[in-house]
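Incident log, structure service

09:12 report received: a user says their structure output differs between two submissions of the same chain.
09:20 pulled the input from the user's history:
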Amino acid sequence: MQTSQNQTFAPTGVGFLRQAFHSRVRRHDGMSRPQGWRFGLCRGDRLLAGNEEPPLGAHLVTARFAYAHHGVYVGRGAVVHYAAFAKLWRRGPVEEISLTRFADGHPVWVHPARLTGLPGAEIVRRARSRLGENRYRFFSNNCEHLSEWCVNGEHRSSQVERFLKPLRRVLRALNNHTRLLRAMALQCSGARGIRRV
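09:34 re-ran on a clean worker, output below:
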């Protein structure tokens, strides 16, 4: 499916920071992706065309300055999302807003549903059951956690997992290094004990 720039769902103005997210890179399979934005897109994500309505219960993704913002389409042009950091870098509750406001001038991508995903009506029910919740936590309860829980029944965030992966590697290496130092210290203390006898 090839999509031209003017078919992108980007209902409001585009500033100079947003320009970077609107340039496209052609891939070998004919799909286009925002250049340099890998924060929340997956291989199967599909760009929402200009006047296209997403499927009921669709997991939506849109670019922000340094991350991807996630929400759930609940029908009639409305999206349920965690308002925290979506705009102005302030915490906010789970709310239902228009698709235009959710996009905030950026392209919107539809995250593919899993085969084990929930039916649309159940996704909408789950999304609306969290309205007003104000317990946003970047690492444990963000907009992607909310969307994944609504759509797939899993409370997870691939963005957080990708962010923490290098940190976990460093911590694992430090842990291994500490164990090695302790083992060497025990060997040295054991060797001193043998000499004394």
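09:41 both user submissions now match this output. Likely a transient worker issue. Closing.
09:42 reviewer note: Residues 78 and 127 are 11 Å apart (CA to CA). The longest helix spans residues 158-196.
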